[in-house]
Design a protein that fits this description.
single chain, 302 residues, mainly alpha, three-stranded antiparallel beta sheet, disordered C terminus, binds iron/sulfur cluster
């Protein structure tokens, strides 16, 4: 250490008061990233367990069908994680990614027409219908060669497809032992309980760190909100973005991660009831043995 440097006593209250608030914010964001990475690792283990059990890969290279019918929902913390990952690939890559989001947001293509700004409170039926149609349209991060632009940091709802929610009937991957095209295997039991707890802890940490990290919405919107907030505000002020693309839920996650949510959605169960169900899970007692179980267990629906 050079003579000019001084040690800082962080236990000294007068010094602590000078530590910028951003220090705490960065720590909380790091904590949320760590929890998100744990969730992503658990999903990878779930995928490995399935592949071991089935004897086939659970994604067919060069397919991309699920990405052609899905614009993912993501939380603010996931958007920030993707931005951090994209920055690691270079500023130009990040700018290209954000341009892609901006173009998608202002695009006049597709089912979204109503421009009534940000909807607060009860969502008009027309805009909700546009949102649902939009969610089932092609993801803007799908490349023409069927690769995903953000594969290394893709949202957990993308990882969940075929792992904790069944990919039938659209997925054409090879069938494993005992599977049928309309009844495909997913993981379940203690490994899924552990995963659900991990997701819940991640959501909790993100929401407590900052309401914007815990909010969820369509991924391109969440990315622009995180990466170019002033630009997003300007586009909204100019009324250039359809309202359906701006729908966000604070402090909750409304993507379909779990089979019971998917079954409920297929049967028309309201989203709020499914969210309540998800909230009822315990938040502690995570057992490292769950990791081993996750490797070994999988369920076949037949
Ligand atoms: S539909 Fe199935 S095989 Fe095709 S990309 Fe999605 S998970 Fe992979
Ligand atoms: S983010 Fe990637 S994996 Fe997810 S739907 Fe879009 S292209 Fe597919």
């Amino acid at each position: 250490m050079s003579k000019g440097n001084r040690m800082i006593d962080y236990t000294d209250k007068s010094t602590a008061a000078k530590i910028p608030a951003t220090f705490d914010r960065h720590n909380r964001l790091l904590e949320s990233f760590t929890k998100l990475q744990e969730v992503q690792e658990y999903y990878k283990l779930g995928q490995q367990a399935l592949e071991q059990g089935l004897g086939v890969s659970i994604c067919h290279l060069g397919c991309g069908i699920c990405c052609r019918v899905n614009v993912p929902i993501a939380m603010g913390v996931e958007a920030r994680n993707i931005i951090s990952w994209a920055l690691g690939r270079g500023p130009l890559f990040l700018e290209g990614l954000l341009d892609r989001c901006e173009n998608w947001l202002i695009s006049a293509d597709g089912p979204t027409h109503a421009r009534e700004g940000i909807i607060v409170g009860i969502i008009p039926r027309k805009i909700l219908g546009e949102f649902q149609t939009l969610q089932g349209s092609q993801c803007p991060f799908l490349n023409p060669d069927t690769t995903c632009v953000i594969h290394g940091a893709r949202p957990i709802v993308c990882q969940a497809f075929g792992v904790t929610r069944d990919p039938a009937p659209i997925c054409p991957r090879p069938l494993g032992s005992g599977e049928r095209r309309d009844l495909m295997a997913i993981i379940s039991g203690p490994s899924v309980d552990a995963l659900r707890r991990k997701v819940q802890l991640m959501r909790q940490a993100a929401s407590e760190g900052n309401p914007a990290w815990g909010a969820s919405g369509l991924l391109p919107t969440m990315l622009l909100a995180a990466g170019r907030p002033e630009r997003l505000k300007a586009l909204i002020a100019e009324n250039r973005i359809p309202s359906a693309k701006l729908l966000m839920v604070a402090g909750e996650y409304h993507g379909l991660l779990w089979q019971d949510q998917l079954d409920g959605a297929r049967q028309g169960v309201p989203g709020e009831l499914l969210i309540e169900h998800d909230k009822g899970l315990e938040t502690d007692g995570i057992d490292r043995r769950d990791l081993e179980r996750a490797k070994q267990e999988f369920r076949q629906l037949v």
